[in-house]
Amino acid sequence: MEYLSHNEAETEALGARLAAVLTPGTVVAYRGGLGMGKTAFTRGLARGLGYAGRVTSPTFTIVNEYEGGRLPLFHFDMYRLDDAGALFDIGWEDYLDRGGVCAVEWSEQVAEAMPPETVYVTISRRPEDDRARIITIEGVELP
Predict the structure, then answer these.
(1) Torsion from C-alpha of 8, 76, 61, 123, nearest 10 degrees
(2) Which tens digit of pLDDT belongs to each residue from 105-114?
(3) CB under 8 Å to 10, separation ≥6 — which residues?
C-alpha cells in the first residue's frame, strides 16, 4: 500500500499505525536513501509500541534497543556493515528470537538475511514536492 507523508509528524504517525499490527518476531526492513525519514518512521513505531523515551539513529552503535512497550523494538542501521555475515556476527539470530520487532535501516546491505515474512517499508521523495515522501508498505495491511 502506498501512502503520502507531507512532514515528519505524518511519517511518525504512519509508523505508529504500522506498530499496531506488528507481532513478536516481525522484521521491518527499510529501503530509502539518506534523509528520507527512516528514523522518523522508527520513532513512530516506538511510540505505537508504547515506548515513550528518546529514539535516535543507531548509525554508530549498529543497534539501539527500546524496551518498556507492548513489544521491545530493536532498531538496526546496516549502513556500515559490509554484508549479511557481519549482521550474524552481531547476534542477528538472537535478536530475531527475543520476541520483539526488528526495524532495519539500510536493509539492502543485508538483503539475504531478511526472513521471508519481512515487512518492507520503502520511503522516497515525491517528485512534485521535495519535502513530501511516498511511503510504500508491503507485507502487512494497516488498519
Answers:
(1) -30
(2) 988 888 888 9
(3) none
For 2-138, the fitting CATH number among 3.30.43.10, 1.20.1250.20, 3.30.300.30, 3.40.50.300 is 3.40.50.300
Read off φ and ψ for residue 76, nearest 5 degrees: -105, 150
pLDDT at 82: 65
C-alpha cell at 18: 504500522
- Spatial CA neighbour of 69 closest among 59, 80, 55: 55
DSSP 79: T
Q: Which of 14, 43, 10 is nearest to 143 (CA)?
A: 14
